[in-house]
Amino acid sequence: MPAPYPFGETVRILRAGPSPGRDPRGQPLPGPDESFDVPGCVVTPREQTPTVGGSEQQARDTVIIGWTVYAPAGTDIRTTDKARIRGVVCEITGEPGDWGRNPFTGLRGVVQFAADRVTG
Asked: Which letter does DSSP use for residue 118 in this model?
């Protein structure tokens, strides 16, 4: 069954438009808000296994560091975007992947991206 999934989640993509210029200190001014909702996404937790016996392990085997999101085909996701998932703002990490077209059915595949929680 192709996306959007009827029982999927809505993910908000946070995107700023092009900068209109620079402030008096030379820093770029934020562009206009171009954020949008993507309904029907599959959101799965993404984990990282710390080094066994390392200082990061702290008596646990895995640590959830963010989510993997499967968005409907054709969704425009950029590495400069952020995503609000379940009320948490996340950075898009890595290049979003377009699964392309299924050679058996001809249907377009999902757009997959990793989203890490913003900390600090």
From this structure: P
Q: What are phi and psi of 52, to 5 degrees?
A: -60, 130
- Give 76's contacts (C-beta < 8 A, 6+ positions apart): none
Per-residue 3-state assignment (H helix, E strand, C coil) for 25-73: CCCECCCCECCEEEEEEEEEEEEECCCCCCCCCCCCCCEEEEEEEEECC
- Is-contact 119 90, C-beta < 8 A? no
Task: Write the pLDDT tens digit of every residue in 87-98.
Answer: 999 999 999 999
- pLDDT tens sequence across 35-61: 999 999 999 998 766 566 655 555 555
Per the structure block, which two tokens stand in for 91?
């950075």
Q: pLDDT averaged over the chain?
A: 86
Mean pLDDT confidence for 26-43: 93
- Pairing assessment for the beta strands 111-117 and 88-98 based on DSSP bridges: antiparallel
- Residue written as token pair 């595949």: 109
